[in-house]
Amino acid sequence: MTISALSTATHGMARATSQLQHSANQIARSGIPGAEVDIGNELMSAMTAEIDFKANVKVANAAQNMTKSLIDILA
């Protein structure tokens, strides 16, 4: 379970990073004439990516703590 949780958290962090990069690129494009970018939507997407990343960090930390506890019990 711990390995699965850590894998899921890692995947979630990568997904959030990708989402943030996409939003940052879209916001950067907003200065180009003719580019139709909804800055409000992209800012919300960036904020959501930040929240997602932080949540996945908490999952990874919990998985790490569970692994430490398991090792302590078995030792």
The N- and C-terminal alpha carbons lie at a distance of 19 Å
Order of helices and strands: HH
Strand fraction equals under 5%
Overall pLDDT: 93
Total number of strands: 0
Helix run count: 2
Uncertain spans, ≥5 residues at pLDDT below 50? Answer: none
Structural class, by secondary structure, is: mainly alpha
State Rg. Answer: 18 Å
Approximate shape:
rod-shaped
Q: What percentage of residues falls in helices of 4 or more residues?
A: over 70%
Main sheet properties = none
Structure description:
The protein is mostly helical. It has helices spanning 2-29, 39-74. It is built from two helices and no strands. It is rod-shaped. The mean pLDDT is 93.
Write the layout of secondary structure elements.
Elements lengths: L1 H28 L9 H36 L1
List its traits.
single chain; 75 residues; mainly alpha; 2 helices; 85% helix
Summarize the structure in short:
This protein is mainly alpha-helical and 75 residues long. It contains two helices and no strands.
